[in-house]
Design goal:
The longest helix has 24 residues. This protein has an eight-stranded parallel beta sheet with strand order 3-2-1-8-7-6-5-4. By secondary structure, it is α/β, with parallel strands linked by helices. The model has no long low-confidence stretch (mean pLDDT about 95). The protein has 15 helices and eight strands. It has two domains: about 290 residues, Alpha-Beta Barrel (TIM Barrel); about 60 residues, no CATH class. InterPro entries: UvdE, Xyl_isomerase-like_sf. Keywords: DNA damage, DNA excision, DNA repair, Endonuclease, Hydrolase, Nuclease. Pfam families: UvdE.
């Protein structure tokens, strides 16, 4: 089982989604930005390995205007060495990477022009993963698309248009249930017809459910993953406590994640976390299932002043846990309580004074 996150780690200086505006696009700018993006991708992967994160979603913006007509640069050849080196690192460390085209990549649209652009975008993502020389367990994730007033016809269009993809793209593509239109049973049907794997998105399922329990769903989903597809992969997130329904949470809550984990761990899935705090929650969830004492100390260094400014009592309780039981569940439950606690001006001032005294000394 791997646990990972999407695209942009927090608390580091690396980025793989630098962009160029269309009006300012030039070969020189493209080459400069692409080089920086690839260099930072390698650094992010190295950071992930140091933190026991072996699942990662690569940003679609890694190659600026990767599928746009303005970009006719042979980036696969120009950056062949860099791409192959990244691929070697991925394979050596048994990392699993994926990509997820955006909401405008709609393969089941009634518009042939939109479908044409969607195919081009999927092929770009395929070319990028192929350029790393990684096997077909490294996937491209998409939704089925829109309803367009007729759900059944929209499913038929997806099936028809899927067949227009290259063989490599067909082997890389996996489909995910969404929160509005196509539920798990819908993607299961398409999976059976096209013989492609399903990404089960737990959060989407909570909003757009089917009449099956979680174990039945995971059992059916796992059957869609063939040996060459790699281990079953799922998406996990929670509802934000401050945003509208369907918004991903700011962080993963300890109790909810462990309840989910204990239900699905028998299926040994790779779990992609879709949450606002990215790598922070990935490390948290890894600590929760491994209870790594040394890692808890490292993570406390990142959290402690945030906890202190919310509640000094919680700060002391966290410190006590680390100095006695090293219980990751209790530790992160205290962190969760602090994260959802309201701003306290007096605690905030006291924390500033504490940090100031520490710096002066």
């Amino acid at each position: 089982m791997r646990i990972g996150y999407a695209c942009i780690p927090l608390g580091v200086d690396w980025s793989t989604n630098r962009k160029i505006s269309l009006k300012n696009f030039s070969n020189e700018k493209f080459l400069k930005i692409t080089k920086l993006n690839l260099e930072d991708l390698k650094k992010i992967l190295e950071y992930n390995v140091k933190n026991n994160i072996y699942l990662f979603r690569i940003s679609s913006d890694i190659i600026p205007f990767g599928s746009h007509s303005v970009n006719n640069i042979l980036w696969q050849k120009i950056f062949k060495n860099e791409l192959e080196n990244i691929g070697v690192f991925i394979k050596k460390n048994k990392i699993r990477v994926s990509m997820h085209p955006g909401q405008y990549t709609v393969l089941n649209s009634p518009s042939q022009e939109i479908v044409k652009r969607a195919i081009k975008d999927i092929e770009y993502h395929t070319q990028f993963l192929d350029s790393l020389s990684v096997d077909y367990s490294h996937k491209i994730v998409i939704h089925l698309g829109g309803r367009y007033n007729d759900k059944i016809e929209s499913i038929k269009r997806f099936i028809k248009n899927f067949k227009m993809l290259s063989e490599s793209a067909k082997k890389r593509l996996v489909i995910e249930n969404d929160e509005k239109i196509f539920n798990f049973d819908d993607v299961l049907y398409v999976s059976y017809v096209l013989n492609i794997p399903i990404i089960f998105d737990y959060f989407h399922h909570l909003i757009n459910p089917v009449d099956r329990n979680l174990r039945e769903i995971l059992s059916l989903a796992k059957e869609t993953w063939k040996k060459e597809d790699g281990n079953i992969k799922i998406h996990y997130s929670e509802q934000s406590h401050i945003r509208k329904l369907g918004s991903h949470s700011e962080f993963i809550q300890t109790a909810k994640f462990l309840e989910f984990y204990n239900t699905i761990k028998r299926f040994d899935p790779d779990i992609m976390l879709e949450t606002k705090d990215k790598n922070i929650s990935a490390i948290k969830c890894i600590c929760l299932i491994s209870n790594n004492k040394n890692k808890l100390y490292n993570e406390w260094e990142k959290y402690k002043y945030l906890v202190m400014e919310k509640s000094y009592n919680l700060y002391e309780e966290c410190s006590q846990i680390l100095n006695t039981t090293h219980d990751a569940k209790k530790f992160y439950n205290k962190i969760d309580t602090a994260l959802v606690s309201p701003f306290n001006e007096e605690n905030f001032k006291n924390t500033l004074f504490h940090v100031w005294d520490y710096l002066v000394l």
